[in-house]
Specification:
By secondary structure, this protein is α/β, with parallel strands linked by helices. Helices cover 54% and strands 10% of the residues. It has 17 helices and seven strands. Helix 4 runs parallel beside helix 7 and helix 10 packs antiparallel against helix 11. The longest helix is centred in the C-terminal third of the chain and has 48 residues. It is globular.
């Protein structure tokens, strides 16, 4: 049953029309990259190879084969030198540069949508760099607007045995959930070191968590006690799964949770993205109509029937819009005769002495952005 759920991640019809994008986030040392490696190996073992993307430009070696690696596009250390940045600033800038080409990444994913059921995306270890940067938002929204997307937050269970540390992780997870606005799975990693049942119990039973907090007498413990009440609603709808990236345990349950998250995406998130896409298309259409109407007003004084020139002297009396309308309407013989006295060409060649490329640019610019006759 678990294996079947792992294979069927579709939109309700049982056939994966689109690959499922799994964004793996996590703090440094949480085992995020190791989990991506284990997920990749698990899917290969089921004869369902995923499409893997690495977005960490500072990683030295990848323990898994990546179909798209940001390091092939952006050189992290060169970015630091060129812009005079530190490590985190270099990662942010590298992601920003990569995000400008992410439309090409989307095309690659679309080409592989019939061959791969999952797209695994490993993000930088500095989680705030991806979560709160403009490039992270661009990448996340680009994926979510086209493919079913799920955010997986990897938590280091062995370092969350303290109630205060546990609450810090939960607050971070909550902020990521509301920032990404996507189905969210909390993967409690390193269950081979310590079982995650204590954390699940803390989430389900407020009194047990309070008893654990009573052993702490600091100001932070009082703040944590107050925040635990606020997160009660967050806990009630949170998908939690315990995994071990080292041993590979819990992966069947993990993919069951992913399948449920995909259903949630199709039910609650896709309609919203479709609405946003339609509103964006409507806004672009309205803007285009406004541009056409403005262009029509600019060219309203042109006599569309009299579009031939009688001589070079006549062009001096025409307005800018008239010149644009008449350019390119001459016969071949007239064009050869009039080319020496073309006002725009003559002005650029004789007065400015600019390169031919610049002359062509000026001509194209004058045709694309005509000045109004009232100028």
């Amino acid at each position: 049953m678990a294996a079947a759920a792992a294979e069927v991640t579709a939109t309700g019809s049982g056939s994966p029309a689109y690959p499922v994008c799994v964004l793996v986030l996590g703090m440094a040392g949480s085992g995020k990259t190791t989990l991506v490696q284990r997920l990749t190996a698990h899917l290969h073992g089921q004869n369902s190879p995923p499409y893997v993307i690495n977005l960490d430009p500072a990683v030295h070696e990848l323990p898994f084969p990546a179909n798209i690696d940001i390091r092939d596009t952006v050189k992290y250390k060169e970015v630091m030198k060129q812009y005079g940045l530190g490590p985190n600033g270099g990662i942010v800038t590298s992601l920003n540069l990569f995000a400008t080409r992410f439309d090409q990444v989307m095309k690659f994913i679309e080409k592989r949508q019939n061959a791969s059921q999952y797209v695994l995306i490993d993000t930088p270890g500095q989680i705030e760099v991806f979560t709160w940067s403009a490039s992270g938002t661009i990448i996340t929204e680009a994926l979510a607007s086209t493919f079913p997307s799920v955010v997986v937050y990897v938590m280091d269970t062995s370092r969350s045995t303290s109630p205060i540390t546990f609450m810090s992780n939960m607050l971070y997870a909550c902020s990521i959930l509301y920032k990404t606005k996507l189905p969210f799975i909390l993967a409690m990693n390193k269950t081979d070191i310590i079982d995650h049942s204590f954390a699940v119990e803390w989430m389900q039973d407020f009194e047990i968590f309070q008893d654990a907090l009573n052993q702490e007498t600091t100001y932070v413990s009082n703040l944590t006690r107050s925040m635990s009440l606020v997160l009660d609603e967050f806990y009630s709808s949170l998908k939690v799964v315990g995994v071990s990236a080292v041993l590979g345990t819990g992966l069947d349950e993990f993919f069951v949770q992913v399948s449920e998250a995909v259903d949630e995406y199709e039910r609650e998130y896709r309609p919203e993205y479709e609405r946003l896409r339609k509103s964006l298309a409507k806004a672009e259409s309205k803007q285009q109509k406004e541009h056409l109407e403005r262009l029509r007003k600019d060219m309203g004084s042109v006599d569309m029937e009299s579009s031939s020139l009688t001589g070079a002297s006549d062009t001096s009396s025409l307005g800018p819009s008239d010149l644009i309308m008449t350019r390119g309407t001459l016969d071949e013989e007239d064009e050869e005769r009039e080319s020496d006295t073309d006002d725009i060409d003559h002005q650029v060649t004789e007065e400015s002495h600019e390169e031919p490329a610049f002359k062509n640019f000026m001509q194209e610019a004058s045709m694309k952005y005509p000045r109004t006759s009232s100028h």
